Queue: 3 jobs
Job 1
Amino acid sequence: MKIIKKAANLLLRLALALIIAGIILFVSGYSPLKAYKAMIWGAIGNWNGIALSLVQATPLIFTGLAVAFANNCGVFNIGAEGQLYLGAMAAGVIGAYLPPLPHYLHLLLALLGGALFGGLWAAIAAWLKVKANANEVIMTIMLNSIGILFCSYLANYTFKASGPVAQTPEIKSTAVLSRLSTGTQLSSAIFLGLALIVLVWFVLYRTKFGYEIRIVGANPRAAATAGINVAQKITAALFISGTLAGLGGAGQVLGLHGRFIDGFSPGYGFDGIAVAILGGNSPIGVLFSALLFGLMRAGGMVLDRTTNIPVDFVLIIQAVIIVMVAAPELFKALKGGVKDVRTVVKQ
Amino acid sequence: MEALEALRMNKIVKSFGSLKALDQVDLTVAKGEIHCLLGENGAGKTTLMKILYGIHQQDEGEIYLNAKKVKISSPKEAITQGISMVFQHFMLIPNLSVMENIILGQEETKMGILADKESRNKVANLSEKLGLKVRLDMLVEDIPVGEKQRVEIIKALYRGAEIIILDEPTAVLTPQEVSELFKVLKTLKEDGKTIIIITHKLKETLAVADKVTVLRNGKNQGSITTDKATPEILAQMMVGRNVMLEVVKGKVEKGPVIFETKGLNLKDKLKNINLKIHAGEIVGIAGVEGNGQTELLETLIGLCSPTSGSIIFDQKDITKDSVEERLDQGLGFIPEDRNDRGLVNNFKLWQNAILGYQKRYEKKGLLDFAAITKASETIVKNYQVKVLGIDSKSSSLSGGNAQKLLVGRVFYHNPRVLIIAHPTRGVDVGAIEYLHKEILSMRSQGKAILLVSADLDEIRQLSDRIAVIYEGAITIEGDGGDFTEDELGLYMAGGLRPESKVVKA
């Protein structure tokens, strides 16, 4: 009953968003119906559309999962974007520069490298929070800029492939995450994402570690009273959150682009926040909301390609949908997040 | 005094969502009467009074003031009708003076300029006539709780209140302040004011009221004049069955000292705390809230480390041990505020039933659900937690049941030392009886128990030894029978110094 009510509520908000965006389109002299038809057809109308939607959803599964994991421990990780970049760079460098290795070993090392660097990048924020009482929201935001620009530097100078583009050399075939079908960009990174959904669910709900993480997230003072080391759990949660985002970046490099390209992410890390919150911070919820966001991105891309509606409208439609769908939850979560930060800091 | 009717509330019904908070409640209060509205938490007392004060509106029913039907839709209207309410948490502005607080919103002006003198005389008259001692020029943040309450009462009178509602007025007072308050209330009564007191304390009801109306589960259980009432009768009306008000404390042979603090200091919050607790002994810490109890509890459990001094558990120094290590060694802790440090409210009952002991339900990193289910069900059964099932959220538990869960969780996991804070705060009479019995049964099992409570009756009934904490120091310690209630009250208020009474070892 609750789920049906929630779903109905979501659909209602989605419809409202489409109406508002439709009015904006109409007032500007474009046909909303034509636009929506193009979007929906583009996202789910044929196998190519579905594949495009899944390609767009893939990195969001990782970043959504990353933000959700930290949220379960009461820490707001806004830095998934930076962690995604670090992970992508690490995977790109390992994939391109390591001497010849057996296929799966090389792939595994590249993925592990991506996870590790994403995790360590997030752990810096955790370390500052625990040691210096720094606010993790501000820390992770700042680390975003540093991380993204650092990767840009590496792609422009240290690891630059020859040619005019700021990118690293192509990864070796032994580090490639294989494509699922020819003619689409869909790679097996999506299976890695699905496996992580299951794994994170298992860790959060079936292990003592996950139990303690969630207790810290729900009531840090009760957690401390129950002998749980709150600082340690927060550090662990942020590290794990970073590894998930880092794996997302690695997946893009190893499965889609074949190399690190400067500016490859159109904000997957930031969308991950909306994905996590819309998914109620549960792994299953993240899966569904990442798919929804993937559909929207794919629909927007097709709209841009097939109609004369300016590309800015795609962004407007997406923004209205995100605001209408995610905003009520977003505000709630932000309020809760701020409160949690204060109580944790007090400890 | 002829019973002129000051107030009649007739068949009041009020629902919040699906919850019926008040069901056809009648209340009649005579003019110049002190009337107690008695009931357990959640019985609907405060809701009924908030309707009278205009904060809530009734769904059905009428209100008559001086036999005239009235409609009160806001506190402002209530005040113009001569009704004032003094809340449990005072509504004073701390950084304004007493005088400014009293006249706030009702300032006398002369051509737009504050007529300070007039207001001042008016307030001074009120305060003198009724024996309400307040210092008008002190800042509210600098005066003690009892005085703040008097300021609230003067504020009500200044606004022309004829009916004054007091919500749990004694909750924050020492026994001395309580008797002072009661004197004031009796003066007001002689002055013709009508007073309604919301309370769940039987003794005080009998001490001050003329008449009592008892509510239970939003229903009126009848009214009774205090000359015909006894604590037993009132308790039965409140709970709906016979209640043992005084627990029977058996004799327990004291064992060796198991838990000890030596010269514990915490900044300026705790001063040289020396406590010894034997096996099979309950040591009660009496004190007005905010005198270092919280800091003492947090230091003992390991949430903060003392500036100096040591904590000895079973001859082992545990001062440097973490909370986890202390729990592992058999320290059981029931925190002051169950919603703050005790339970995780939007989590399921079983998740709360193992909190602090999750290590014992771990198998290779995984939670052992079979063991957890068994333990949770045993706790629910043995400690009479009324709940639909162990998958229910613990936020669905009533105060008493939540406390039973908390107590059950700690007692079930076999501690050797128990640190128990306010075990019956916000808990109904029936559950209090039960919780006291359980604590005493822990005592007979030879546990060493430290009991911190602001409830003097609880301390006196349960403790073998009593120590009084005042401004972070233990000012006196002695056997439970050594103190009268009045003496304890004086110590709690810092009135008597330790040298005035020989401290027994």
Note: Residues 500-505 of chain B have pLDDT under 50 and may be disordered.
Job 2
Amino acid sequence: MFRFQSFEKKEENFTKKDTPLSSDTNLLIKQLKEIYDHHINKDFCSRTLFANFNKKNVYLFYYASIVNSDKIEQAIVQPLLENDGSSYSNVLTNESLKEIATIEKAIEHINSGKVVLLSEGDQIAYSIDVSQFQHRAISQSENESVVKGPQDAFTESTHINVSLIRKQIRDKQLITTVSSVGERSKQDVTIVYISDLVNPNILKNVKERIENIDTDNVRNVELLEQYLEERPYSIFPSIYYTERPDNAAAFIEDGHIILLMDSSSACLILPVTFWTFFHSPEDRYSRFMFGNFSRLIRFIAFYITMMISATYVALANFHSQMIPPDLLLAITASRERVPFPLIVEVLIMEVAFELIREAGIRIPSALGPTIGIVGALILGQAAVEANIISPIIVIIAALSGLTSFAISDVSLNYTVRITRFLFIFAAGLMGMLTLMGAFLLWFMYAASLKSFGMRFLSPIAPSFKSPKDTLFRKAVRSEIWRPGQIQPKDLKKK
Amino acid sequence: MKQLLQLIILLLSLLLLTSCYDKIELEQQSNVIAIGIDKEDEKGSFSFTFQIANPEAGSTLSTIGSKEEEKETITVPGTDILTATSLANSFVTKRMVLDHTKVVVVSKELAESNDFLRIIQSASRKPEIRGDVQIIVCKEEASQFLRNNQPSMERRPHKYYQFMLQRAIQTGLIPDADFHRFFQITEGDADLFLAIYATTLEENEKEYRITKEHNYIAGQIPKEGGNRTQFIGSAVFKKGKMIDILSGQETRTSNILDKTLHMDNIQVTYSDPIKPDYQVAVDYIQKVNPIIDIQYNKETNHASIDVTVPFEVRIIAIPSMVNYLSNKEHQKKLCNTIEQTNENIANKLIEKSQKIYKSDPFYWSLYIRKKFKDIPSFEKANWDEEIYPNADINVSFQLKRMSFGKMFNDSRLNEVTE
Amino acid sequence: MNPHKLLKTGEMFAMLVILLSLKASDTTASLLAQHTQNAFWYMPFISLLVVLPSILILVHLLKKYEDKNLVQLIEAIMGSWASKVISFMIFLSSFILMGFSYRSYVGQIKIMYFPQTPTLFLYLIFFIIVYFAAKKGWEVIGFTSKIFLPLFIVSTLILISLTMNDIVIERIFPFFGSGKLPILKEGALKGSIFVEVFLITIAYTSFKKTNYFRKGLFLGLAFSTVKIMLFFFIYATLFDYNSIVMLSYPFHDVLQYVHFGALTNIETFFMIFWLLGSFLRYAIYLYLVSWIFSEIFHIKHIESLLLPIGFLGLMVAVISRNVIVSELVFYNSISNYITFFYIGFPILLWLVSSLKGEMIKQ
């Protein structure tokens, strides 16, 4: 406990102001070692070398766990020991050699996997990038799988991720700038955009927001998303999260901005509209007819998953005249022995389905098949036979559960599932009257949302010059505009 | 966001507060499929019969026995349908819901009284009884009719009425007689309304000979087997009061002459012009509406009506073996017979309506409307009492096409037998 | 052109169509049929002809004075005192009409779908939904209207196609209904069908270009007139002239009558769209009335007025239910008076404006 407090104190001394490097190298070394608690921090390394070209002692500081030791030998140790030259920049020919003038910079560089090199008597330190953070190899996209289209997904390394994007956009104006976020642990957020397309106001807005994040550490984009968004309590997402580089590239080409971080295998895309969440990259890879067909199916699924349970409650409880007599009698017959009101029945099944779903995600994969047996058998078959629920409810719940999987986006999926419960309650209140009221308000709430200044339901309302890629898309050849709602610098696709 | 939260809380609290009002669970309601209305001896009091569908009948659920009755028929006295339903609840367990009512059955006795219009009008005030409910007039008491009606195939009542009426209306043997049409014609106060005529009583006392055409009314068809209920013919209503019964054939003719009614192909027989002992069976097809041309003289308030009915026939069977296919002469004769027969039937019906009913069951007042500028002058001219009974009406059926089906010629029966 | 304003022709068109064409579903049809019998179906056209000059004058003035909405325009032309009177008259009349349409819509919901629910409760639910909808602001109302309009049109087309089998064209004869003179008189008096066109000019400056407003206004007006007439035509051909007089809500009777093949009782399907439409219509109405009020008294936040004005409108509706037994009689006479006022005031504005112009020239 005591050590922790003293560390805080020390850190405070250094971070509050920029401290220039002392000319007394021994003092400097002592300071650095103290900052990093050299005697107990095992992976902090300091080495001393004798440089051949100026016959001075050179001190190296780095974290052994995040650097490539071979590279240190080749790029630093060997040249210093053997090569001749007039200055460090001549001797160390590594491209990432940088001069450092303050202790704060030195700390930042060490933390991000660089070697900081102190030369005896100099007031300038040097840093060489030899970082080697460990990460997975590129793997298949698991959560947004497609049948037709590239299969690779982002992995937990900005370098690789940028490379995946650049592979698809060979544009000289494709810019990757870096902003740092976090007070204590400085993390890099890589902002990727095409500079002669992106709307400068949005870019400025995004950069400001990243800079204004006031917290110790933002570890990855999943957390960054929550720091960036305007309405943390809204049920609609306002930033798109995807693990597919092809998806990211498509948005960059339309003038959107992509955010990447080192420890996330996904990126953030902004600004977005409702349609962004609704679409799947495969809609564009499939031909015009096929893509639009799957859009139509998805839209029906979207409607069913939100509305079917609520509609059933409204119809059965308030508007039974609408149900055809055959069905009405069948439902009535099955309900005669069920002890609960209809709305409770619906809620039991919907909650049960959500339980299966949540358990299915959390359950260790070896036990996976169990959930299917338990869910299908016990909840479906046995509950009906025990007269706890009527069979039609099983159909309704299964349908609304199944169709919810057609909404591939994780965020929108939650939106829809929460909305479903709101609608069920609304329908239970006064049937279609309140259900439609709730739907209207829900819809108007969506229409009033903005994502980084862009209206959530654009380009339909408000309308803009755009590819009109909304519920359906046009043929790829006849898309001549970029989405006008984000006001890109160059509206026309050549 | 705060608003949304507030709204959710508000909605949830409202949900808890309002448990009832119009909310009703399905199993707490009984669905009435047919309503029967009878006149009681006392003036202004009626008895109402409700036929309720039993949801558990025929259910595939293993826990429910399939032995249950399909329907329950109950009769209660009352002054209108609404009060009767609440009285019925003294022995029916659930709330009676009239939304799925398919037919209203009225006894002939009530239909012929002045009370009919009153009781029907009060029923239609309720949004539950819709415009597409069919009106059936039965010979016996409505309660008796509903109880006697025990179909063996379509045992569930809603299906029975749906299929039975749909098919019978298509063949034109009964009219399409829904509430909507009843009110349009009765309130329009110019034409006659035809309601479905049905009965469960078979008239065995009188020996009805087997007529060659469909010249029956319900109860007269000498059939064997099947349900004892017969739907054929129509009850004629003038100003909301029943005045006569039309036979199936007359009903069909009035369907043909009325362009607001639609019907399917029908199979009819005509006597063979060459060998009068035989009949020719044809498929009567009417693709276009009849052309009704009215010449109206304002001064004399006299109209002459030219009715042209273009139709087609397809010959189905020629039991007489006369060669109608290649023999032009014979063909022409057959053609004339068919046209003539139809015209005769139509003329008879028109004469009857002009002389006895003093109004038309064909909704022809629609055509005279064009001759008037405004409604006051139209109403003053008085179609049903003045114009129609005195009009010169000329009906001509025109056979536009005669086809012979898929056979060129029947096999020569004579040769085969020889 | 204002880059911060997002409303365009589409939104204007949708809002005006929703405001006007929903009249086809309320008591307007039977109100007209009381006096004109089966000629009521083309009454909206006569009414349109009567009010069209005034609408044109008003739009002309708005164009001339640029960047002024209805109340600001009246103020610019009439000076502060007289403008307050006229504007307040507009507010008052629209407010009362709002209360009445409120009553009418809740009445329809109650009679047709919730007969056992207390009316007050229905009022409250309707009000809560509409209030929150209006609170989202003018732009959002516009966007929503625009997105929902195609749904309304499609459902209308379905409904029309379902009635096709049952309509009898001959029922529109005798063409002049209850006589030429009564028709012309009634048509002229019911110019108030189009009163919303005058009200919506309060939003003149809220569009990206004022041109969008004018375009949307004329297109919407034409479309709504056709749509209303089409609906009235269906009522006139589906019901005989004696029957239509007895129906207070012919729209719902049509809904109850139509069937899709063997599927009967499908009115709930159309009720969905009708409900959405009436929520939106009332939200637009409430917003417009509050807007007029805020402009008259220079109150900045329209949103804060929605609750009191909406609630007072609710009071008008509730109280009028107790005071006025026959909605038809009262609504009939009030809509007649309002017609005169709305035809008159643009002409007055125009005269004063041109007189002023003359004076400046001299």
Note: Chain B touches chain A through 35 residues (CB under 8 Å).
Job 3
Amino acid sequence: MKGSLASRLLIILAVLILVAIWTIPTLGLLITSFRERDVMTTSGWWSVFADPAGAGWTTANYATVLNEQTGIAIAFINSLTVTIPAVVIPILVAAFAAYGFAWMRFSGRKVLFAIIIMLLVVPIQIALIPVLKGYLALDLNGTYLAMWLAHTGFGLALATYLLHNYISELPRDILESAFIDGASHFTTFTRLILPLSVPALASFAIFQFLWVWNDLLVAQTFLGTQKEVAVITSALLNLIGTRAEAWHLLTAGAFVSMVLPLAGRAPGSGEAEGRFIEG
Amino acid sequence: MVANSDAREPHRPAFVSLIVTSVARTAASVFVPLIAFAGLWQGFLFLRDTDAPRPIVAGIAIVWGVGGVALLYVVANWVVERFPRQWRDRVLPFVFVGPAVVILFAYLLIPTILTLVLSFQDGASKNFVGAENYIFAVTNPSMIEAIRNNVLWLAVGTGGSVSLGLLMAILADRVPFERLAKVLIFLPMAISFVGAGVIWRFVYAYRPAGEEQIGLINAILGALGIAPQGLLQLQFWNNFLLIAILIWAQTGFAMVILSAALKGVPAELLEAARIDGASEVKVFQKVVIPSIRGSIITVSTTIAILTLKIYDIVTTMTNGNFGTEVIATLQFKQSFTFFDYGKGAALAIILLVAVMPVIWYNLRRFRGQEGFR
């Protein structure tokens, strides 16, 4: 905090430049998405600052991109259908497992938990071919269930690890008094542990939501890229592939795909998430 | 039979009723799960084959999926609670950890072994071909290019994100608008790499000389009197343009974690070093860096793994053309475009080997943690 006025101004300037570099790309796309199709390709988006009135403002790009033809609207619903269960299921499964590993005694506990730690960083590419083969054999490929289970499988190691860190730190007395009162493990878990773990569950939920909503690889492999089933990232990629110069569609489509993640990213939640990842 | 031979015993009614209840119990513990499974299966068939409007199917699917999993746990617990006590205590832990373990085995552990086997087989997974796929992987020109690019991603992507994140963490601490600055730097992390791809395609957009440039970089080049460039087609240098997107997205992550670590460095420690006459640079080198070393390693390994697996950015920006191929894009192409499972599997194994040091490090650090109860 100390230092001469000059050095403090220099620091402020440096931060301003960095923040500008980080913000301008998104800002440029946002401005462009609200300009008419013809003007956005004949003048740079920065020209709106010189001539705000003649910038050709419109919301038509969003109306166009949300119509049936681009598949963005359907893809938005598909993404929701994939994402909500793919967030809730791993949390539920991982919370049960975290409780089991933290508060129950059984043989093989340490070995199983060590395996989960090991699986934390296995690249999902390793699983794609065998899981796809399994799905084809079971006729599961292209279904939502296939996507939920795949995302559950790929997110579960991290979820179990993080929730175990949290649940194993809960005060022992709380659980013991529950058992003395005759509560079963199941009751203790659903009535006591789950409500107490809400902060950890919510942090992981944000993390998993961003990961699933923004995923491309798993969706391309197990769900396919046809318009009826494609998720929003696949649909956007299709748009890039087929209409690479249609900036009126790409700009608006990109923001439709970002609206939920950005809305969910309330100011300050980044810091909570950081602490959470740090463990 | 047992009941017959005991027919004349006076305790018969109690005994029979015991058998009847235990049979009924067993039957119930079999039938309730069966009914639950059958109901869920019917739901699955309906969802797979229905022609109902999209939003309705989506709603039903969400309720079915989430409710179904919860139901399975409730039913499993209900069944186990009907077991005799010593059995219950032995089985119940597996109701809790079993599903997670089964899913992880099915989706990660077993597939890893299968992929290893596949990597020694031909494209159709029929015959064993020895190390042929691996020989292909280290001799094929596009693969060599991919490995070189992945090294670039690893070094420049990780180094760039971590050092810029650290810089921001240090600087943001000293400005009055710290919170806003941090939110804006962190924001790109919420955006998908496909969405980020659209943002940066627009920044890199190119139009032939003479036309109005709508991409920011080419407009700046134009203002400096430099002819417009097809930036994404610039062999070799385009890799750095793609890596810039990763740095843009990940710096916020590094900043948040390193900033928290910096705030945790004890003030007395810094004070003491300054009183001893250490310069600010020395204090940073000798006190700050060692205190946040753990966080720097956490951030670096996380981002390093991300760069080794990088797929979405390359697919979105160039689809691996113009000399930007990476291992993961080749892996996807070999596996699901050419359907050469042997080569695809070998590339996946190479990715696994590349992240192996991190797995090893994680395990070691985990063992070092006290209190694994």
Note: Residues 5-58 of chain A form one domain.
